[in-house]
Structures are given as C-alpha cells and as structure tokens.
Specification:
- Chain B: It is found in: Cell membrane.
- Chain B: InterPro entries: MetI-like, MetI-like_sf.
- Chain B: Keywords: Cell membrane, Membrane, Transmembrane, Transmembrane helix, Transport.
- The complex is a heterodimer of chains A (323) and B (279).
- Chain A has 323 residues and is mainly alpha-helical.
- Chain A folds into two domains: 70 residues; 237 residues, Orthogonal Bundle (MetI-like fold), CATH 1.10.3720.
- Chain A is built from 13 helices and no strands.
- Chain A is globular and about 80 Å long.
- Chain B is mainly α.
- Chain B has two domains: 54 residues, no CATH class; 213 residues, Orthogonal Bundle (MetI-like fold), CATH 1.10.3720.10.
- Chain B is 75% helix and 0% strand.
- Chain B has 15 helices and no strands.
- In chain B, α5 runs parallel beside α8 and α8 packs antiparallel against α11.
- The two termini of chain B are 41 Å apart.
- The chains are: A mainly alpha (323), B mainly alpha (279).
- The interface between A and B is large, with 123 and 117 residues.
C-alpha cells in the first residue's frame, strides 16, 4: 500500500509537469498558426481557461446551487424561507450563531494585540528572535494537532487527584479549584478560541513585523527629540502607519474565525454549547442529511462574510487602478 | 537603574507570551515519548525529575497498529500533486491576468478576489453530489481537483500581485524578437517568478496538509485513503484520552509541514508580504 502511494505521487507529479507543459506549448503553437489578431484574442484564454473552469466548477456554481437549494425542502418542494426559519428558531443554531460572533470578535482582537505586542516588544529584548520563532512555529501546526495539544493542556482531574493537565496544575498550585476547561460552559468557548489564537498569532506577528520596518525612523526620532515618551511616540507615529496592516490582519483573522471547524470538531465535536456555524452545517449535512437545511446554514455563513468580500474587492480595485 | 526598572513590564509581557507559546510544544514533545503508565501516574514536567522512562514504543504502535504510516503517505499523495496543480494552473492564469489585455479580464480578476473570502462550506453539498455522480469521492483524483479549485483564488491573487510588478519592457522586448506567449511564460516569467512560486507552494502545501474538512467530506470514511489529519481526528474519537498515543500521532502529523516550513520560511515570509501587507 505504501509503495502504491509513493508510486502514485511520483506518477501524478510527472503527468502534471509533462501535460501542463505540453498543453501550453502545443496550444500556443497551434494558436500561432492563426492570424495575428485571432492569436492575440485567443491566447489569454489558453492560459486562463483551466483556472476559470476549475473555479466555476468547484466554487462559483456550487455556491449558487447551495443558495438556491436553501429555499427547497428535503422532499424537493419550494418552501421559501422555511429552512431559514427552522434553522434560526433552533436552539442549536442560535448557540452556534452566538459562538460564531464570539469567535469573530475575540480572535481578530487577540491576534492583533498579541501579534502587534510581540512584533514591537521583541525588538527591545536580547532574546527577541527566540520569542518570535516560538510564536511563528505553530503556523505550520494543523488545527487537528493543535486540538490534541490543547486538550492535553486543558486536561482535568477531579479535585484532590494529581492534576496532570498543565493549566490545572498551575491553577491548583495557586490554591484554586481545578477547572474542566473544555466542558464548563463558562470557559470552553474561550478555551477553543485560545487554542486557535495559539496557531494564528504568529501570522499576525510576521505581518506586523514587516509593516514596522516601513515606519519612517526620522519621524520617531523627531518625536523623541520633542520629548515624547515611548508610548506617545508609538501612539502618535507608529500606530497611524500600522492602521492599514491592522485592517489586513483583522480581516484575515475574521475569515479564520468564521470558517473555524477543525478545532471544534476535534476538541468538543460541538458538545457543551461550543457549536459554531460550520459544525452545525456539517451535522445538518451528514447526520440529518438535509441539503436544504445545510444550505441555509451555509448561506447564513456566506452572508456574514459578504461585507468583507465587498471591502476586499474595493480595495483591490483601488490598488490596481483600472482593473 | 530607573531605566532598567521601567523595562521590567516589557520583559514580563514578552516572557509571558513566550511561555504560553513554548510550553504546549514542550508538553507535546515530552509526552509523545512517555509510556502510558507514566502519562497516567504523573504529569509531563515531572518526568524531568524521574528520568529513564522515555520510550519509542508509542510511535511503533501508532505507525503499525493504527495505520499512521499509510496515512502519512496518503497525505503526501494528496498534498504533492494538489500543490503542484494549484501552482501550475494558478501561474498560467495569473500571467494572463497580469500581462495581457482581453475581454472579461477585470471580471475574472474581481471574481477571483471576491472568492478568496468565500467559506468553502457553501460549496460542499452540490460539489459532493457532483462528485458522487462522477464516482470521484474517496479517490485521490477527486481530492486533488477539490483542493485545486479551492486553492486557486488565493494562488491567482498572490501571483498576480507579483507578476504585475514585473516590468512590462521585459515582455515587450521578447515579443519584438518574435517569441510567443508560451515561450515567454516558460523562459522569462517562470524563472523570474521563482520566489513567488516558492512562497505559494509552501503556503499551499501547509494548508492542504493541515486540511481536515475537505478530506473528511471527500475522502469519506475510507480508512485506506485517509490523510493524517483524518487519521488523528479518528484516533481522538476512538481513544478518548490515550494521551501517549494521541501526542505521538500529533507529533508525526506536524513533522512534515513543520520541516517544510522551517526550511523555507524565508520564502514564505517574502511571499506572504508580496500578497498580503500592501497598503
């Protein structure tokens, strides 16, 4: 079996390289035989067609179909907004909506705070490079693995027993009662968001780190000469320069928060009031097998990102001018 | 002295954050080498005081009995072709979108940018049905195509930004010499764009490797094609708190993307910044 997989990987790699090269080279030659005007009109499509076809087939068309289906019942009859009414009146979806809002508020805020703080402060201590590396590494860790790691950190034993979970060991050492972080509804959503923050803050830090280099040093010098404190210089010189970057990081993290699935699936499977829209949709799809209902949840999820999508397109238009 | 005192809060914040980020990694690394009786009877940091009870047995068990070895190669068989496809198809499209004028160009470009944000959940039901009809679920070809489709918008966006910065004269001179678009793509664009292509490849590799949702849905419950993320999440469901097994499985699942990432982080950061931190 393993040998099969290796063979498959190598064969697929070879086929992709050879077929890709042949398609573009031979296609280009074939089109070159046409009159010059026709060549210029057609050749862009030679290059763009595979991508456009894939995006239409796997993203655009299915998304449209989902939206349409969300108005139909399980038996195929048109039901208007019935699926939306059903899902929004359902306790589980309401909890999921509330949690998704919690994710969308907390994850971007914390990622910006931690990422910015470390990007700014790490340069002021001698061991800064090590701290940056520590924040950077978990970017490569899957949410599944992070789920395992943090379930282990959050492990709970009844009071009196030896606490082998790291966090509860700290809590009991400080004289507190052990907390069942993952099960207790007062803490579990924060525990999941914290685990996600652990994998994402490094990304925020990298971007802030680069943006900080573009802050003009002369302005900071001038502010300091005028007697501004470090904080005042940061507040009035650095921060205004960083605002566009803050927006980029917050947007990226908002998208991560909205799509959050893996970590919830692995750590609680949506139990104990930790459902988010993605997990509700997954269950509507695979447990209830109700396409209309799953479609309604997916459409709600889509509507929540629509403002970010519009903002992104506007931003892109501004940057590229005519596009 | 006063200056040193004022810097204490800085040290506290930086060291505090560093501790929160390092301790889980340390806990993972240590636990994954401890036998189950040790994990049950003492905490991982106590093992430093009780040396001698480390073992490779967990890995042997995870690799053999839990089929993690096969999953590791399943992951490679999913990720390598999917990444290559995304980079190749994305590069061809980005070259056209950045360098040529044609009808619908801006429509394609703006749709692409909009689709970066679309939660893939909204596509899953119809896509799954289409794949069942075509008998593509549970197949590697199927999952390559899904990852290709989902990866393309970001790929095109990242590469477009890079290609748009290549001086026009470079293309125009080649065209004067009678080179076709295909020739220009292979002999000028691809070599010049190597840093951006590398960054995209790293990005896509790590994302695809770490994906759970797409693999769960399109690989279904077929154990013999399950990549590592699915295998580990199934272990979590079946093992509950067999921490020594779960932590070793987690270590195995992060080794490859971590190695790719650390080895190529310079390209990753550069590519990230070409794509994201404009403005």
């Amino acid at each position: 079996m393993i040998a099969d997989r290796i063979l498959l990987t190598l064969a697929a790699t070879a086929v992709i390289v050879v077929a890709g090269w042949a398609y573009l080279r031979l296609g280009d030659r074939a089109l070159a035989a046409l009159p010059h005007g026709a060549y210029r009109r057609l050749v862009p499509w030679l290059f763009a067609a595979p991508a456009v076809a894939m995006v239409l087939l796997t993203l655009a068309a299915p998304a449209l179909i989902t939206v349409v289906w969300s108005f139909f019942g399980a038996d195929g009859g048109f039901e208007g907004l019935a699926n939306y009414a059903q899902t929004l009146s359902d306790e589980v979806t309401r909890i999921a909506l509330r949690n998704t809002v919690l994710w969308v508020v907390l994850l971007p805020t914390l990622a910006v705070l931690v990422g910015l703080a470390i990007a700014v402060l790490a340069d002021r201590v001698r061991y800064g490079a090590l701290v940056k590396a520590a924040l950077f590494l978990p970017i490569a860790i899957s949410a599944v693995a992070a789920g395992v790691i943090w379930s282990f950190m959050y492990d709970y034993q009844p009071p009196g027993a030896a606490q082998t979970g790291t966090l509860n060991a700290v809590v009991t050492a400080l004289g507190g009662e052990p907390v069942s972080w993952i099960i207790d509804t007062a803490t579990n959503n924060y525990a999941l968001i914290g685990a996600t923050l652990w994998t994402q803050a490094g990304f925020a830090m990298v971007i802030f780190d680069a943006a900080l280099r573009s802050v003009p040093g002369e302005l900071l010098e001038a502010a300091r000469l005028d007697g501004a404190s470090e904080w005042a210089a940061f507040r009035h010189v650095t921060l205004p320069f960083l605002m566009p970057t803050v927006v980029v990081v917050a947007t990226t993290m908002t998208v991560v928060a909205l799509k959050a699935f893996d970590i919830v699936y692995v750590m609680t499977n949506g139990n104990y009031g930790t459902d988010v829209l993605s997990t509700v949709m997954y269950r509507a799809l695979f447990t209830a097998k109700d396409n209309g209902l799953a479609g309604a949840v997916a459409t709600i999820l889509m509507l929540t990102v629509a403002p970010i999508m519009i903002a992104n397109v506007r931003q892109f238009r501004r940057e590229t001018g005519a596009a | 002295m006063a200056a040193a005192l004022r810097r204490i809060p800085v040290h506290v914040v930086v060291m505090g954050v560093a501790a929160v980020w390092v301790i889980p990694l340390l806990g993972l690394a240590v636990s994954a080498f401890r036998p189950s009786w040790a994990v049950l009877s003492s905490a991982w940091w106590e093992s430093f005081a009780l040396p001698g009870d480390y073992t490779l047995e967990n890995y042997r068990r995870v690799l053999d009995r839990d089929g993690m070895a096969l999953s590791l190669f399943n992951s490679l068989a999913v990720v390598v072709p999917a990444t290559l496809l995304t980079v190749a198809v994305g590069a061809a499209a980005a070259y056209t979108l950045a360098g040529m004028r044609f009808r619908l160009r801006s429509a394609v470009l703006l749709t692409t940018v909009a689709l970066i944000i679309v939660p893939i959940q909204i596509t899953l039901v119809p896509l799954l049905r289409m794949f069942s009809t075509l008998d593509l679920t549970g197949s590697f070809l199927g999952i390559w195509l899904v990852h290709l489709g989902f990866g393309l918008p970001f790929a095109i966006y990242l590469l477009h930004n890079f290609f748009a910065a290549i001086p026009r004269e470079l293309f125009e001179a080649a065209e004067m010499d009678g080179a076709g678009r295909g020739q220009i793509f292979f002999s000028i664009v691809l070599p010049v764009a190597r840093p951006a292509l590398a960054a995209l490849a790293i990005f896509d590799f790590v994302w695809t490797w770490n994906d759970l949702l797409v693999a769960l849905i399109f690989m279904g419950g077929f154990r013999d094609v399950a990549p590592m993320t699915v295998a580990v999440s199934q272990l979590v469901a079946s093992r509950g708190d067999g921490w020594e097994i779960l932590t070793s499985a987690a270590v195995l699942s992060v080794l490859v993307p971590m190695a790719v990432f650390v080895a190529l982080q310079r390209h990753f950061v550069r590519g990230l910044l070409a794509g994201v931190s404009k403005g």
